[in-house]
Amino acid sequence: MSETLAVSRAIQNKSSRFSALRELVKYMPEVLSETLEVARSIQDKSSRLSALSDLAEYIPELMSEALTLVYSIQNETSRADVLSKLIPKFKVIETDFAVWQDVVHTLAHRNRKSFLEDIPKLAPAMISLCGGDKTVLNLVVEAMRDVCRQWP
Question: Which burial class, exposed, middle or buried, applies to 37 when counting CB atoms under 10 A from its CB (0-12, 13-18, 19+)?
């Protein structure tokens, strides 16, 4: 395994080095801090965002850093598209109501079809924020039907 680590460390491209180290973290947790350091040094904002959100599985606090990057994207539609890809990586229990409010508001900048496709991704958060009450999903579906009746 140490030979694999040495080869991974020798990779010049930071995104590629991150990918290699990220795979090693599963077997060698001691390389997590080094992997995080590489992730933070990636210059391309989109690649850095992806790297940070990948590591959030190991370091949940990184989602706030990833969200800061998302919210630095100026174009609202682009920001919403990136955020949509991040939703499945959120730890619902560790994310508070205000964050989810911002997420939904941002996602609303997507076109109608895309926004509706995001709703199922939000289901775990909706249930969690309602104390585990799954009937909230029925209420959301009813509200969506009402909107569709008024705005075909």
Answer: exposed
Residue 95: pLDDT band (50, 70, 90) is: low
Residue with tokens 């995001």: 118
Which two structure tokens, joined as six digits, stand for 33? 């801090």
* Residue 152: per-residue pLDDT: 66
Location of structure tokens 């990779």: 11
Cα(20)–Cα(142) distance, integer angstroms: 46
CA 93 to chain centre: 14
Q: Report the C-alpha gap between 22 and 128 in whole angstroms.
A: 29
pLDDT in tens, 51-87: 888 888 888 778 788 888 888 888 898 889 888 888 8
Query: Measuring CA to CA, which residue among 65, 63, 57 is closest to residue 26?
Result: 57
User: Could you tell me which residues come within 8 angstroms of residue 114 by beta carbon, excluding any fewer than 6 positions away?
Assistant: 80, 81, 84
